[in-house]
Design a protein that fits this description.
10 strands, 244 residues, two-stranded antiparallel ribbon, 6 helices, 8-stranded mixed β-sheet, Rossmann fold
Length: 244
C-alpha cells in the first residue's frame, strides 16, 4: 500500500508559485462514460467493494471520476490496477483502495468542508468533490499544483488549490470538518489539529521516512485531547517541508 502524489497529461493554463491560491472550476460534473469506464467499474467492484468499503456516496464517486486522466499518458492503461503509479517529482498517485480507505474514514457528508494536504495528481481531491464536498487542497510542489488545477478544471471540479507548505494548513478557511493528509510526517502537525472543527476527523499517515507508517484517524475529544484510531500499516511518500 502506498501514497499519493501527481502527474497529469494536460498542460496547465496558469502558473502556480509557492503560496498562491487558485480555484479550479467550470461548473460541470465529470463524465462517467469514457473509453475506460468498464475498467473503472471493475476497479470499484473488485478492489474497493470487495475489501468492505461500503459508503455508497464514495463508491459512486470512484465509479465517476476518470482516474486515468490523473496519470501520465504512458501509464493510463494501468490507472485502474491495484497499485500506486509514479507521477513525477518523486511522487505517486495512491493505490485506489488506499484512496477509498482514507476517504471512508473521514465520515463526511455532502456540503461539508474538507482540507487535503498533498494534492499530488488531484485524484483524491476529485473524489471528494464528486461526493459533494467543499474541497481545499494544498501542494508544496508548484508544478504538481499547477497540473492538478488544470486537470480538475478540465473535468469540471470546483476545488480551491494552493501551492504552499501544507504543514501550516489553510488557516483563513478553517475550521474544517475533515482533514486528509496524503504524505507522511514524523509527527502530527499542530496547525492542522488546531484547524479541525469540533467533531471533525483527520486521517493521516505518521511514521519515519523510509519505513512503514501507521495510518491514523484522529478526532478531538470532549476534553480537547485527540482520540486516535489506527487504520493499519501504510507506506507513503515523505511529508515535504518548504525549508527542505
Amino acid at each position: 500500500m502506498t501514497s499519493e502524489a501527481t502527474a497529469t497529461t494536460l498542460e496547465s493554463t496558469t502558473t502556480s508559485t509557492l503560496g498562491s491560491t487558485t480555484t479550479a472550476t467550470t461548473g460541470q460534473s465529470s463524465p462517467t462514460a469514457d473509453e475506460l469506464s468498464e475498467e473503472r467499474l471493475s476497479m470499484v467492484e473488485n478492489q474497493i467493494s470487495a475489501r468492505q468499503i461500503q459508503d455508497p456516496l464514495l463508491l459512486e464517486a470512484m465509479k465517476a471520476v476518470p482516474r486515468h486522466r490523473f496519470v501520465p499518458d504512458d501509464l493510463q492503461k494501468y490507472a485502474y490496477e491495484d497499485h500506486p503509479l509514479p507521477i513525477g517529482f518523486g511522487q505517486t498517485i495512491s493505490q485506489p483502495y488506499i484512496v477509498a480507505l482514507m476517504t471512508e474514514a473521514l465520515a463526511v457528508a455532502p456540503g461539508e468542508k474538507v482540507l487535503e494536504i498533498g494534492t499530488g495528481s488531484g485524484y483524491q481531491a476529485a473524489v471528494l468533490a464528486e461526493m459533494g464536498l467543499t474541497v481545499y487542497t494544498i501542494e508544496i510542489i508548484p508544478e504538481l499544483a499547477t497540473r492538478a488545477e488544470s486537470v480538475l478544471g478540465h473535468l469540471g471540479y470546483r476545488v480551491m488549490t494552493r501551492a504552499a507548505d501544507g504543514y501550516f494548513g489553510w488557516e483563513e478557511e478553517a475550521p474544517f470538518d475533515a482533514i486528509i493528509v496524503t504524505a507522511a510526517p514524523d509527527h502530527v502537525p499542530k496547525p492542522l489539529v488546531d484547524q479541525l472543527a469540533p467533531g471533525g476527523v483527520m486521517v493521516i499517515p505518521v511514521g519515519p521516512i523510509g519505513a512503514v507508517q501507521t495510518l491514523w484517524k484522529f478526532s478531538p475529544g470532549a476534553d480537547g485531547e485527540l482520540l486516535a484510531e489506527s487504520l493499519g500499516w501504510v507506506s507513503f511518500v515523505p511529508f515535504t517541508r518548504a525549508e527542505e
